[in-house]
Amino acid sequence: MKKGLPRSFYFVLFYLVCGVRILTAQVQDGRELVHATLLTDTATVQAGQKFHIGVLYKIEPDWHIYWKYAGDSGIPTEIEWHLPPGFQAGPLQWPLPSRDKEPGDLEVFAYGSEVLLYAEVTAPASLPAGPIAIKADSKWLVCKSSCVPGDANLSLELNSGHTAADPALFQRFAAQVPRVLPGNYQLSVARQAQQVVVSFSGTGSPASLDFYPEPPPEVVLGHGKQSGKTVTFSIDSEGKAMDQLGGVAVIKDGSKVEAFQVPAQEFGKLNSADGGDRGQTLDLVALLQAVGFALLGGLILNVMPCVLPVISLKIFGFVSEAGGQPEKAFRLALAFATGILACFGLLAVVVVLLRGAGANVGWGFQFQDERFVLFITCIVFAFALNLLGVYEITVSAGATGGLARLASGQGYASAFFQGVFATVLATPCTAPFLGTASAFAFAQPPLITFLIFFSVGIGMAAPYLLLAANPKWLGYLPKPGEWMMRVKQVFGFLLLGTVLWLAWIVGQLKGVQEMVVLGALLLLIGIIAWIKGSFWNPVASAGTKWLSAGAIAAVVILAVSGYSFFTAPSKLAWQKFSQESLDAALDSGHPVFVDFTADWCITCKANERFAIDTATVRNAFTQQKVITLRADWTNGDPVITQILKQHGRAGVPMYLVYPGGKNREPALLPELISAQTVLDALKRG
Amino acid sequence: MIRTLLITLGVLVSNCGITLAEVQVGKEAPDFVLTDSNGKTHHLSDYKGKYVVLEWYQPDCPFVRKHYNSGNMQALQKEYVSKGVVWLSIDSSAAGQEGNYPPDQLNQIATKTGSARTALLLDPDGKVGHLYGAKTTPDMYIINPQGVLVYQGAIDDKPSTALGDVKTAKNYVKTALNAVMAGQSVATTSTRPYGCSVKYAQ
């Protein structure tokens, strides 16, 4: 019946609907959508007594009023108290709002159904006789799909005998007001370039942390992104440099939700009930822990296949050079250890410099930046493959040759260079660990980076010092053997576990799509590592090396073009498909092309790229004024399912071509189409 | 070998970088094409060499109405358009949402309110709204003759719907325009916009 009606009917209908809408916009009044009443928790008040007054807002279903920070749009609800002389009102208490989404990815902090905003009032030391008048003027903005301002001038009388108190109501809403942060919880609010990172530490271990910010008015914040115990906000713009941010921390533990007020403090200071000192010591504990692990890591480096066999040789060397002077042997070992430390110092310098250079060009080296996490995941994965023996890391002979000359001979200087030499020679085995550590160090301040790297160095040098002091202990050294390979492989699996954790972070930050991109990247690295390990090794002929280099280049080109193929936006002007949009398109008399597709449908994507979104088809569409509609079946829309069935199809892709004019019978194209198929279907009409 | 691997990875990772709406004060304002309520097409790049004001607009929003019913917005438009500024109001209300009207009706509203803007651009699919990250109506952007964004945010410092506030408020747009047009730097280059949400598609 709809299809037969003349176009003028739709115009009339449209104007009617719009007209009514304007009318309702004028009739709707914020005072009717929100019913505000002034309430108290005590009917009678005595001199010096503390009590509460509040405004209860009862809000129409589906409408909402705003919290003290409204979010992307809206206006905070306002209350102005008018109290008799001597009465003092405290700050307004705001129960925890809900964080809501509005169309267009806008986020607001709002209250629906009902909320009580209240304040504590202190009565003066002497009270006048008779009733006490309390007044409150409130203004609010109430929104659903449209917004309407409202206001109310409210009053009540205490000590008059005709005001009912409702202490239970005040108690109910007081339970929803954020509390002071307890001592076992610490929150740090830190600024990192154009981001604010709120992170949680402390002895309590909540399931999830959220943060409702209260930014100053000159600052536009992005939406909080939760990831484990941190919430990250982008600073989208700031009129004045933002040096502090307060807000409400929302901690969920099972079904329990607790909210804590976090006062605005300068960035970098810890927030907790009993001051920052406790946080400082906790930080120290975390740092000591990291140093401990770094020492242990350095020690473990010694059981790597390229390191362990060297230890005994070196120690024997020192002992024989010292010629029966144990002290000299130890000093030689000390020079050797200094050489090792120098290498690690250099590595730390490189990391710190790179980090500084990167930060200058605006790279955020932190776990809230998904590009950094992607990068670090790729590195960890590549090193895991190395540990598992897929390929070997080789040190170029040119670099080692010079070092070998410096390290030859005797004396402390040569012992120092022997330390450097040993560290460089050990690279094939230690690179996976040091590389991973360096990558993670990018997210740390310089001082910590140096501390960690030196700790690794000390850990690695420790056996030399110990054994040079007590050469007899050499007997306790485990014998080199195949077990070293197995240890290496076990560490490979540990790194793969790390990859899993990093992938989870990427998923949290960016969702499934980005996780798949990461998976594809790892696959690519796997292929490259396999080519490198199997064909591009020291024993391979020059021809094989060239071939494998070509293969690697081909794989990379294929991956990059594949990525852009799947993510490039269409150059056609697609409209969203619905029965209404189809009817409207058919009514216009132009030909109509409907693309039934889904994000996960590879055939659909291939058809779109190679047949539909091609120059010839685009030209034909423009010339014949074809209206293009896209029906997205990604989430199994039931309406689209029905239409697919009508045309005898169980799924996508499906293409319908309506010839235009009065003919409403579509041509059904095959599942695999070429540009010619589309052009032919258009010609037939 | 490690270096090659790192470079390859770097290239790949930078390719995967998700492009975000990068509208920032001090950076070039991204170009767009929109049709106005009279069917005329406007490219932002057409106006290189002139100051451009973008005003996110939605006739039914009480905050927008505050500035039109008080005559504040029209006075600003008149003053600066006469000084050669291009004033583009943009309605990003999606079909079926508040503030989405047929062009003739929008023109009627414009005549009734005595608007003095250069053009009212229609952005029903919210493309330009999302490109600029417009969140509220009104939400104001000032672009200099070199095409660089010099101000973004609220129209003034009184987030309310009360007509009377217009007189006492500090108008950020006026202050910024006066400053840049006199060759001075803008004191407040960005603020948080206030108002109704832009009525994007549900």
Q: Number of DSSP helices of chain A?
A: 19
**Major protein interface:** A-B, 58 and 55 residues
Terminal-residue CA separation of chain A = 25 Å
Number of strands of chain B: 9
Beta-strand percent range of chain B: 15-25%
Q: Any idea how many domains of chain A? A: 4
Rg of chain B, rounded, reads 19 Å
% residues in beta strands of chain A: 15-25%
Distance between the termini of chain B: 51 Å
Alpha-beta classification of chain A: alpha+beta
Number of domains of chain B: 1
**Total beta strand runs of chain A:** 25
What value does the average pLDDT of chain A take? 81
Helix count of chain B, per DSSP? 7
**Any idea of the CATH class of chain B?**
Alpha Beta
Q: Poorly predicted ranges of chain A (pLDDT <50, ≥5 residues)?
A: 1-27, 270-282
CATH superfamily of chain B: Glutaredoxin
| Computed CA radius of gyration of chain A, to the nearest angstrom | 35 Å
Class inferred from helices and paired strands of chain B: alpha+beta
Main sheet properties of chain B: 7 strands, mixed
Compact description:
Chain A is an alpha+beta fold and about 675 residues long.
Keywords, separated by commas or semicolons:
heterodimer, A: 685 residues, alpha+beta, Immunoglobulin-like, 4 domains, six-stranded antiparallel sheet, five-stranded mixed sheet, 19 helices, 25 strands, 23% strand, flat, disordered N terminus, B: 202 residues, 7 helices, 32% helix, globular
